[in-house]
UniProtKB/TrEMBL annotation:
It comes from Paraphaeosphaeria sporulosa. Pfam families: Ribonuc_L-PSP. SUPFAM superfamilies: YjgF-like. GO terms for molecular function: deaminase activity. The keyword ATP-binding does not apply. This is YjgF-like protein. InterPro entries: RutC-like_sf, YjgF/YER057c/UK114.
Amino acid sequence: MKFSSSLIVLCVGFGLASGKLTPNYTSPLGVEVYNPDQLFNVSGPWSLMTKAGNLLYISGMRGFHPSNTTLAPVGLPRIEQAFSNMQQLAKLGGANLTDCIRLTVFVTDMYRWRPLVNTVTQELWKDVAPNYPARTIVEVQRLNDDDIVEVEGTFYLGNQ
């Protein structure tokens, strides 16, 4: 898996390596809402991520390729892409995977997809293993477009 190099290519390709992401909206209490169109458009009434104080919340990511919004092949490629999308948003928001404090993963078949989610998690956090972020994995009956996985993350941004 090459999440890091593809992330760098994506950031440079969109001119984001040196730029600061600007919120689409900031609430009166300072909650910032982001929908960076560099990735993909949201498919409903929700935002890709929000920032409240020093916490970054990333909405459930599925295995879409940002370049053309097609789903990656079912199985490991789809799960890797979902995590990659979350990682890309975290990077845009100023966080790295080691800043992740909580993951929530939804799968449609616990026995089939949980081992693959574990594999991806172990690979992405191999430098800090066994100190993985807190995680909840839940089997659900159905996801949008009959997808197999969705992952959301909460990231700590430090004292910014």
